[in-house]
Design a protein that fits this description.
Layout: H1 9-51, H2 57-64, E1 66-71, E2 74-90, E3 93-98, E4 103-108, E5 115-116, E6 121-125, H3 128-160, H4 169-201, E7 204-206, E8 211-216, E9 223-224, E10 228-235, E11 239-246, H5 247-250, E12 258-262, E13 269-276, E14 286-292, E15 304-320, E16 325-327, E17 330-336, E18 342-346, E19 348-353, E20 356-361, E21 369-372, E22 383-385
Parallel strand pairs: 1-22
Antiparallel strand pairs: 1-21, 2-11, 2-15, 3-10, 4-6, 4-9, 5-8, 6-7, 8-10, 11-14, 12-13, 12-15, 13-14, 15-20, 16-17, 17-18, 19-20
Helix pairs in contact: 3-4
Length: about 400
């Protein structure tokens, strides 16, 4: 590096002096700015410290509390029942046949579903041959009656003159025997006539009771044989529901208990237990409960139906469904204490009826339960009580 010429030294000193003055001015400016910043910082901190005591804890609590409506447990009766399934069947289904032999049906007068009365003619068979035989039996009866009259006349004549010695004792005894024989002959002819009348009556198939024809096997031209089935009749049109229950439930059901039977998509039908079967099925270990259905029930034999058998009526407490929540598969409610703090309480539920849930355990009748807004409440949280109480579900 070459030294600076002597003539340039004053210029160098002037430049150095100017630079020094500029650095001093910059340092003074920075110092002033720093002092100003500290002063304003202290003022702002002081104003924030003065403003902080104006907020109170009570105002914060009021702004964070959830407003809820309370409900009281409702006391109401609940019916304990047993659910069952079964088949609708005829209470008494009569098999109708004929004891006639070798006769051919000429008329079948009813169809399946027909309402019939006791003694109504259902079918008729050809009885022409039997009526011809009946005419012969009636002639034999009249002949026997004539022979009996003659024998009695002979006997009376002999008895009137027995003391005169006209007839011997042997003749008198013979006439008595003849009169007895002709009497027996008449009785035989009358019995044979009655037999034919019965056989002719058997060609008429009559309804043994009022009811509904459920099955028809009779056809025109069919040759009837003794014991052959021609019709089936639901006696008095009476149906019953055969409810199938396990052994432990059978012991809880008593005759006369109320039952509600329902089909899919229809209104339930009120019925009554007629009898409880005394035995169980050896294979299924289930028993049958015979439930008498009203005649107005719109059901058909063979229909599968569900129902509930009432076994007990108890008084319990209930809550609206909106007040009962579920967590991890268990029902619970929020009970509000006197200091307006909500506490989660696990309960046990039973039946559900008309928007109400039966509470079987875990709740006292005097508890105040969160109804409206229960889904927004947390356990241990302070809540605000709405001035208007939550609506109750009316007991029906």
């Amino acid at each position: 590096m070459q030294p600076i010429p002597h003539r340039l030294l004053p210029v160098k000193r002037a430049i150095q002096a100017t630079t020094t003055r500029r650095l001093v001015a910059a340092a003074v400016g920075l110092a002033v700015i720093g002092v100003t910043t500290m002063v304003f910082g202290r003022q702002i901190a002081g104003s924030e410290a003065d403003a902080a005591p104006q907020a109170t804890p009570s105002v914060q609590a009021d702004t964070t509390g959830v407003t809820v409506g309370l409900v009281a447990p409702l006391s109401m009766p609940f019916a304990r029942s047993i659910a069952a399934t079964g088949t609708v069947m005829a209470r008494d289904e009569l098999i109708i046949g004929s004891d006639a032999s070798g006769v051919r049906l000429t008329d079948v007068l009813v169809e399946v579903g027909a309402q019939v009365q006791r003694g109504q003619l259902l079918a008729r068979a050809d009885d022409a041959l039997l009526r011809a035989e009946l005419a012969q039996r009636e002639a034999a009866v009249r002949q026997a009656q004539a022979e009996l009259a003659q024998a009695q006349d002979y006997l009376e004549r002999a008895e009137r003159v027995v003391d005169a010695g006209v007839y011997s004792a042997e003749v008198l005894q013979t006439r008595r025997h003849n009169a007895m024989a002709t009497q027996a002959k008449l009785e035989l002819a009358q019995a044979q006539r009655r037999e034919l009348e019965v056989r002719i009556a058997q060609t008429r198939v009559l309804a043994p009771s009022a009811g509904v024809i459920s099955k028809k096997l009779a056809t025109v031209g069919q040759v009837v044989q003794p014991g052959s089935e021609l019709f089936r009749l639901i006696k008095d049109g009476q149906l019953e529901w055969m409810a199938e229950l396990p052994a432990h439930s059978m012991t809880q059901v008593q005759p006369g208990a109320s039952v509600r039977v329902r089909l899919d998509g229809t209104a339930p039908i009120d019925a009554t237990v007629r009898l409880v079967a005394p035995t169980l099925d050896a294979n299924t270990r289930n028993g049958l409960v015979h439930v008498a259905l009203p005649r107005s029930a719109a059901m058909k034999a063979g229909t599968h139906a569900n129902g509930e058998i009432l076994i007990q009526q108890v008084q319990g407490i209930a809550l609206p469904e909106a007040a009962v929540l579920t967590r991890d598969g268990y029902p619970f409610v929020f009970v509000v204490s006197a200091d307006h703090v909500a506490h989660m309480k696990r309960i046990e539920t039973g039946m559900r009826l008309r928007g109400l849930v039966e509470v079987t355990a875990g709740l006292a009748p005097s508890d105040q339960v969160v109804g409206i807004g229960a889904g927004f409440v947390k356990d241990g949280e302070r809540v605000r009580i709405a001035s208007t109480p939550a609506p109750q579900v009316a007991q029906q």
